[in-house]
Amino acid sequence: MQPRLPKKPPILRLPPKSNIDLMISKAAELAAIAVGIVAVVFALDAAEFVLAPVTTAIVIGLMLGPVATRLERHGVPATVSAGAVVILFLVILAVAATALAAPLGTWMNRAPQIWQELQIHLSQLREPLGTLQDIRDQLRTAVGDGGVTVSVDESSTVESVATLAPAIIGQVLLFLASLYFFVATRYQTRHSILQVCVSRKLRWRVAHIFRDVERSVSRYLLSISIINVGLGFAVSIAMLAIGMPSPALWGALAGLLNFVVYLGPAVMAVILFAVGLTQFDTLGGSLLPPLVYLAINLVEAQFVTPHVIGRA
Q: What gap in Å lies between CA 294 and CA 238, rounded to an integer?
């Protein structure tokens, strides 16, 4: 006698979703994604004090990682090579600060003279500015002041420095510590992540991703640094050719500010315009230094950098 087989459970067929149900489901998914994005943004903003120096340290560590790797190939321990990388970075900053301190201090002392020159040249625009002021007064009379009172808290510079100094020092120390530990433990960190991978094929892919990321980021940052150094030399030569004083200072500033995309060149153009006011008698002549700089920056941004980065 054959055993009786159990009956299969009946198959339940759900009715197909209507268009309204599908729209509600998609809207719920999009709402969940939007809430997650907002939460991540607020979390990043709240953790900016810690994440900013740590992220910067990782980027600098990727750029200087090959230096530590070469030292370790000669038998230098990882802890010592990481210390050497940190010291090398501090030496580079000290050399740059020393080279820029003297000429930059001289021009900072001439800031009142530059401001007076700017007022003299802008006096030519007094009539158009007066017209704009009359329009503003007429609009204020028509709309009314509204009784709005603005109070400004005038705190001294010493108080501001005393308030900001601990935060700045803390971020600097956190950056240096993160740079040291990232370089010193980069292989251990990579090994720990590879241990999480369950299959050999996945470990092989992740290992190659780590290698390619480190090599690509290091090559990219090195290429950008070389391009900015070349831009600084070109700006120095151009400023010397048009008769600007301290051409090496403006070249160094142009190279440093070029690391800040869009905002750096704009700030550099404003600085050169302000300095040009003290060297040229007319407002048109004062525009020569920033125009020359912007022309060089245009060649670098539109031709040199895309060509070099495209190959790298």
A: 11
Q: Tell me the Ramachandran region of residue 282: left when phi exceeds 0, alpha when psi lies from -120 to 50, beta otherwise.
A: beta
Nearest CA-CA partner of 285 in 246, 243, 231, 251: 243
> Would you give the end-to-end CA distance of the chain in angstroms?
78
Q: Are 54 and 174 in contact (CB under 8 A)?
A: yes
Largest CA distance in the chain: 116
Chain center to CA of 211 = 24
Q: d(Cα 6, Cα 261) in Å, to the nearest integer?
A: 71
Q: Which pLDDT tens digit goes with each residue over 47-98?
A: 788 888 888 888 888 888 888 888 888 888 888 988 998 998 899 888 877 7
Q: Which residues contact 253 (CB under 8 A, 6 or more apart)?
A: 100, 268, 271
**Contact assessment for residue 189 and residue 207, using Cβ atoms and an 8 Å cutoff:** no
CB atoms within 10 A of CB 184: 21
pTM above 0.70, yes or no: no
Give dist(CA 180, CA 182) in Å, integer: 6
Q: What is the DSSP letter of 74?
A: T
2 class by beta-carbon count within 10 Å (0-12 exposed, 13-18 middle, 19+ buried): exposed
Report d(CA 262, CA 266) in Å as an integer: 7
Q: How far is the C-alpha of 83 from the C-alpha of 289, rounded, in Å?
A: 42
